[in-house]
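Both lines are given unchanged directly below:

***
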Amino acid sequence: MDSAKKHHIYILYSASCDKFYVGYSPQPWKRLDQHNNNDSSTFTGKFGPWKMAALFRVEGNKSDALRIERFIKRQKSRRLIEKLIQENFVPDGALAQLHRIPGI
């Protein structure tokens, strides 16, 4: 039952290389742990350690969450990501289904 699952978009930040990473997961904290313990040559494996910079619940189903994740990634915009991680940013338009999880 896809509608019963919670869907999240997360933004990670690595201070060691000053890079952001945007991802989707129903279990974002578990996924963060996987990124930080990744020994492979993937992007997150090369540029860690990572910390959670922002976390959003997606109002909708998995395909909505994946669509939003792809939209953010396609923008290739650090400025957009820096806006998203600001606590006072209010998502609208293509990002309207995002609901910030406070305290991150």
User: Anything to note?
Assistant: The chain has a mean pLDDT of 92. The domain at 2-100 is CATH 3.40.1440 (GIY-YIG endonuclease). The radius of gyration is 13 Å.
